[in-house]
């Protein structure tokens, strides 16, 4: 049975992510990957050209 595997070395029970944890990770990841760096640079460059 799959239940017995927990005793083996290196096999950990898959932990369920709590809603709070998911929210925290989503917020962190969203801030990190909201815009790709190339896209952000491109938009900045475009804005600079428009402004000048």
TrEMBL record:
Superkingdom of the source species: Eukaryota
Q: Bias category Basic residues: which stretches?
A: 1-17, 24-52
Enumerate the residue ranges of region (Disordered): 1-52
From the Swiss-Prot or TrEMBL record, give the protein name.
Uncharacterized protein
């Amino acid at each position: 049975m799959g239940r017995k595997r927990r005793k083996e070395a290196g096999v950990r029970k898959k932990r369920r992510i709590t809603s709070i944890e998911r929210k925290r990770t989503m917020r962190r990841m969203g801030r990190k990957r909201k815009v790709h760096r190339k896209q952000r640079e491109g938009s900045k460059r475009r804005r600079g050209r428009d402004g000048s």
